[in-house]
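note to self — DONT lose this again. spent like an hour looking for the file last time. sequence + predicted structure for the chain T wanted, 140 res
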Amino acid sequence: MGSGEVVSEKIHLRRITPQNQYFDNHCDLRDKDFEMHVAQTVQHSLEKKSFKISLLVSFSCEEIRFAEYLYDFIFEVENMLDFLVEVEHKKVFTKQIVGTLVGISYSTLRGLIYGKMSETNLNGFVLPVINPNDILKYKI
């Protein structure tokens, strides 16, 4: 256990499920800066060899939330047990596999949100590229 190598052919994105999609198209965003926040939760099933990555992206302007997108990404990882390590007498998954799955999820979400924004006054907005390990710092 714990010596797993990320092999792309052993990772399968099985399902993408929107849990919440909110956008206030009436918010006047011209000439204003807005903030973006990203958070995540990671769950797993050893039995199904699966991970559920939930990603929340929210946008606020002048302290007012004007958009929020929450999506679940379900992965099957064939060699999941190879990434299980013991830390302080607890079994946890390595940052390598969790970061990889969060990175795939966020990249996919970037495309989904780009499409959603095309129908709003933020047409053409692209989520920035973010280090997946930075996303791991923020829990939903």
